[in-house]
Amino acid sequence: MVESPVPSREQLVERxxxxxxxxxxxxxxxxxxxxxxxxxxxxxxxAGIFKMRVPTRYGGYESDTRTLVDVGAELGxxxxxxxxxxxxxxxxxxxxxxxxDEVQDEVFSTPDVxxxxxxxxxxMATPTDGGIVVNGKWGFISGAHHAHWQxxxxxxxxxxxxxxxxxxxxxxxxxxxxxxxxxxGLQGTGSVSTxxxxxxxxxxxxxxxxxxxxxxPASKLNADAAMYRAPLLPVASASSVGxxxxxxxxxxxxxxxxxxxxxxxxxxxxxxAEAPLTHLQVAEAxxxxxxxxxxxxxxxxxxxxxxxxxSPWTLLERVQCRADLGAVGRLTREAVDIFMTAxxxxxxxxxxxxxRIHRDLCAAxxxxxxxxxxxxxxxxxxxCGLEPNSQYV
Length: 393
What we know:
By secondary structure, the protein is of the alpha+beta class. It has 11 helices and 8 strands. Strand 2 (123-128) and strand 3 form a beta hairpin. Helix 1 (9-33) packs across helix 3 (65-78), helix 3 (65-78) runs parallel beside helix 7 (232-258) and helix 9 (315-341) runs antiparallel to helix 10. The longest helix is centred in the C-terminal third of the chain and has 34 residues, at 276-309.
């Protein structure tokens, strides 16, 4: 295990920025084929993007979540689906660092390893000698086509105890991939379903879900690493928001690129840029993106600060992370709605990037852990002195 030089945040963001033209080039292909282009995955690997949440002893960077936000935002400018897949990989990759060290040796032996996953316990597991046997199906597995491992969640049923949700790591070669990703948005993420049939998983690759949610490592070597001093949901929240920021910025860029050559049909405005309505629209949308960036950076700063100082997490801080995640989703969608509305009828053609961006952002806001309404209600419950109505905090 040889540690490689760790690039700075600025260097990683610049690498992501240089990939934007390639992502834009392959965006239509990815949407048509419902998965990222192979050249895109190779380029991300070459840029070191998949190393950001890998422990340094395996050549990774152990990047903080602010880096994830800013890198995700750059990638999202090029293609929201690619940024989404990259952000999804970072979360199970981080979770892999909670497993015993010998399991990490196996997972991280693959250069630029890609781990996909889910938090939905949609499978059942039974104990057997040396491990468990799993049967079930998981949906919305973004990036499955290019992943090496999947983090799965199942309910373990023992004859003498209450059912318990568990998390396990399994090679993708042990799972059947169901190509069922036909959607209105985020089409290029390849978020297919996977199936396990009588799958044996050794006990070393199984952990209780509560331990994962609390960020309690079974790893001895990662026990004191700053990156692992946080519960899962704040980490996952901060890992996800960059994509939304990037989509909104991509919409703004697409709008301003077309604006000089557009009029407002059936009005006297020969140039859209001269209309007061346009001034109001672009100002309001841009302010919403600014507000979304505030929430994204506040979220990442909270996670990174507490990871460094090791201070305990309060319940209010944990639900604030979910609230910030929801706020980023709401504000970026509102901003893109404005740019889409201002783009006119010609914007609905398939070769117009803004229509894809709009659909991708609408799809992202429907995610169960990102939905603005769910996150805002959760925050309000705790502010009112009630217990959260979810264990995912």
